[in-house]
Amino acid sequence: MTERNAALTYESYLALPEILGAQRPRSHEHDEMLFIVIHQVYELWFKQLLHELAHLRSRLETGDTAHSIRTLRRALTILKVVVAQIDVLETMTPSQFAGFRARLDAASGFESAQFRELEAVLGRRDRQVFEHYPPESGARQRIAEAMENPSLFDSFLGYLARHDYPVPEEALRRDVRLPWEPSEEVQDVLLRVYADDGGAATICEHLVDLDEGQQEWRYRHVMMVQRTIGDKQGTGGSSGASYLRSTVGVPAFPDLWAVRSRL
Ligand code: HEM
Ligand SMILES: N[C@@H](CC(=O)c1ccccc1NC=O)C(=O)O
């Protein structure tokens, strides 16, 4: 008789021994546990967001409006949660953070591969981010792959073409490994989408929500940084808050913002 597997339990299904055994503070400071847990929760949500956005890209490419909208709504709800999470970390004072900051050595958010993957899905094509990853690392390969795939906006253009909008051929056939250049012809198409005011226009609005949401995260992150470490340099080697401020307000989908002056 073959031996039966041990009965599935709450603990085994959720791999709790692994997850709950993965908090390893480097100091005895009370607040370091919060710092670790918050980051781990972020990385789990980043994983789920990547999962949803990959699904969204495939739904867009098949022209499936209802599923695209539902998936976008879910991604947006997750984004709200991750932005709101910053409130929890802001209960930590500058001196509490200073109590264990030195133990972080040169580690920093620069090394969050999933965050870079998310940026790549949103269209970022910037090889400078690779500086923080060893050449053959899995993380680097995943980011590189995301940069070689169509961005969300590329997939959305595919969606519009499937729905018979006159998306210019060169936009559909562009080299998706390069950064997207805003295009007036594409903006003319977006104006027609908005005039029709159907499912495609709803997707446009949700993409703007996504863009606004990621900028909100950047803004909240830099405010948290400013109040916690002031103008100190970052552990990752940047100037800190002033570097982070330069990344706020850079849109992922510039064409969707550009058309608003014409709506
Ligand atoms: C007290 C809390 C935090 C402080 C003081 C802080 C500080 C910083 C600083 C100074 C940088 C610039 C890199 C450097 O030179 O070190 C940075 C980058 C970054 N941090 Fe944080 N951070 C905090 C919390 C978080 C949290 C909770 C996350 C969530 C994952 C996060 C994700 C990131 C990411 C993704 C970057 C890269 C941003 C970019 O290059 O655009 N940080 N952080
Ligand atoms: N860069 C931060 C340290 C920090 O926040 C951090 C360190 C290790 C792992 C994740 C981090 N979070 C975001 O940067 C600092 O300069 O204080």
TrEMBL record:
Q: Where does substrate bind?
A: 35-39, 101, 235
Entry-linked InterPro entries = Trp/Indoleamine_2_3_dOase-like (IPR037217), Trp_2_3_dOase (IPR004981)
What Gene3D superfamilies would the database entry show?
1.20.58.480
Cofactor binding notes: Binds 1 heme group per subunit.
According to the lineage, what is the superkingdom?
Bacteria
Give the UniProt keywords, A-Z. Answer: Dioxygenase, Heme, Iron, Metal-binding, Oxidoreductase, Tryptophan catabolism
What's the top EC group for this one?
oxidoreductase
Chemical reaction(s) catalysed: L-tryptophan + O2 = N-formyl-L-kynurenine
Among the Pfam families in the record, one is Trp_dioxygenase
Example of a GO biological process term: L-tryptophan catabolic process to kynurenine
Tell me the pathway. Answer: Amino-acid degradation; L-tryptophan degradation via kynurenine pathway; L-kynurenine from L-tryptophan: step 1/2
Which cofactors? Answer: heme
Residues recorded as binding heme, renumbered to this chain, are: 221
Keyword DNA repair, does the record have it? no
MF terms (GO), sorted A to Z: heme binding; L-tryptophan 2,3-dioxygenase activity; metal ion binding
For this protein, the Enzyme Commission number is: 1.13.11.11
Q: What is annotated about its quaternary structure and interactions? A: Homotetramer.
Name the family: Belongs to the tryptophan 2,3-dioxygenase family.
What role does it play?
A: Heme-dependent dioxygenase that catalyzes the oxidative cleavage of the L-tryptophan (L-Trp) pyrrole ring and converts L-tryptophan to N-formyl-L-kynurenine. Catalyzes the oxidative cleavage of the indole moiety.
What's the protein here called? Tryptophan 2,3-dioxygenase
